[in-house]
Amino acid sequence: MGSSWWWHGRAAAAAAAAVACWVWLAAAAAVGVEAIGANWGTQASHPLAPDTVVQMLKDNGFDKVKLFDAGEDTMSALRKSGLEVMVGIPNDMLAAMASSMAAANKWVDQNVSNYLNDGVKIRYVAVGNEPFLETYNGSFLQTTFPAIRNIQSALVKAGLGSQVRVTCPLNADVYQSSTSKPSDGDFRTDIHDLMLTIVKFLSDTGGAFTVNIYPFISLYSDSNFPVDYAFFDGAASPIVDGSATYTNMFDANYDTLIWALKKNGFGNLPVIVGEIGWPTDGDMNANIQMAQHFNQGFLTHIATGRGTPMRPGPVDAYLFSLIDEDEKSIQPGNFERHWGIFTYDGLPKYQLNLGQSHGLLKAKNVKYLERKWCVLKPSIGLTDPRLSDSISYACSLADCTSLGYKTSCGGLDTRSNISYAFNSYYQKNDQDDVACGFSNLATITGQDPSTGTCRFGIMIEVDSAFSWKLQHVRSSNLLMLLLVLLQLCLSFS
């Protein structure tokens, strides 16, 4: 599939990236730099084959990977890869891990010991994922620490207590500053005692504090947030905190955590940046240029090895994320499905240097379905009463997050917007003819409707004989048929 459209209008960004690459390489050569990692999420309708993803990680210079679960295919693909692994336990498993030592022992046996013995380089177990988010309304307050404690005990029982460490990825909202100064940082008042319990346990057992820091979310949430402060150019009005000066949000946020740890007696606890990145679509501030600017700026910033004013030295970090995921919840915002530095099919969205002598390399051996798209029939008028329900149906079951104000497809006309929705549903259902019906409003075409920055995708092949999405389409149609037959039977009774 041709991809020239993808680079349309990006010459300036590519030139800037090239300069940043050389800066990164020069800085990285001069000092010892902590290896960069990537978050590998799998909430996708048609995920790339795990072996393909592992090769892509290695080709692009990643040395470590963070997972959100312990999927068998994913873990198996990491065997003998040399990649350091942080394997995750989802929040919905915390209660089981907290209430049953037997469950914790079984999980460690199946998902740590088993794969370590088979050549997977597991270094951390991430117990939960941002369990104390205020939006969870305290759902995991009672189970997170007991789960951490039981998993640690299970690791010790398995003889892995000094080889594999526990951690708990937390959102940066677990700490705060009463002012804009990092030195006023402390843990959130409603969870202060719980945080100290967890922090002490991590300190005692050789674990690490993992935090997710997102300048983009601050910009998204607050229209008055200074844009320059999100980036690393030094152009923002500085925040002066004693002898320290902060010109970017990352350093200030990171040091707010360091101050919170220090004033509670844990100033030397290792810190991992579990997630940091910038989305490319789904919001007016989520685009290719800003994502490249932020991520390359962050990489260049940490490549100096200077760290932050309160924590000098290398920064241990995982970019968020590796690949777009079209099934992530969009409750936080439409941008949630667009954090990847690669598209769903493994194409680099922009150039980024990770310390290699080259930019990002695309995934290898990706196979696509046929070059065909589902679009609105030219003969259908825009006032057709069937359109509204059809569009709603397509977008509710597929992905329309690239449509909207100042998004990648924000410049489409009305007909093209409708076609985008239809095609998204059609591709997600493996180009099945049934999925391009829409009450006879749509038709299949071999002419690519992509324009400028708006890509009408073609779905990739999956290993299974047919997608579960296709089963859903046919099940829905079967259900409709049964309902019609039932109605007919009732009318004759």
TrEMBL record:
Residues 1-28 form the signal peptide. It is found in: Cell membrane. Its main location: membrane. GO terms for cellular component: plasma membrane; side of membrane. Gene3D superfamilies: 1.20.58.1040, Glycosidases. It is an enzyme of class 3 (hydrolase). InterPro entries: GH, Glyco_hydro_17, Glyco_hydro_17_plant, X8. It catalyses: Hydrolysis of (1->3)-beta-D-glucosidic linkages in (1->3)-beta-D-glucans. Residues 372-456 form the X8 domain. Its EC number is 3.2.1.39. PROSITE patterns: GLYCOSYL_HYDROL_F17. Keywords: Cell membrane, Disulfide bond, Glycoprotein, Glycosidase, GPI-anchor, Hydrolase, Lipoprotein, Membrane, Plant defense, Signal. SUPFAM superfamilies: (Trans)glycosidases. It is a lipid-anchor; GPI-anchor. GO terms for biological process: carbohydrate metabolic process; defense response. One of its GO terms (molecular function) is glucan endo-1,3-beta-D-glucosidase activity. It comes from the Eukaryota. Belongs to the glycosyl hydrolase 17 family. This is glucan endo-1,3-beta-D-glucosidase. It comes from Oryza barthii.
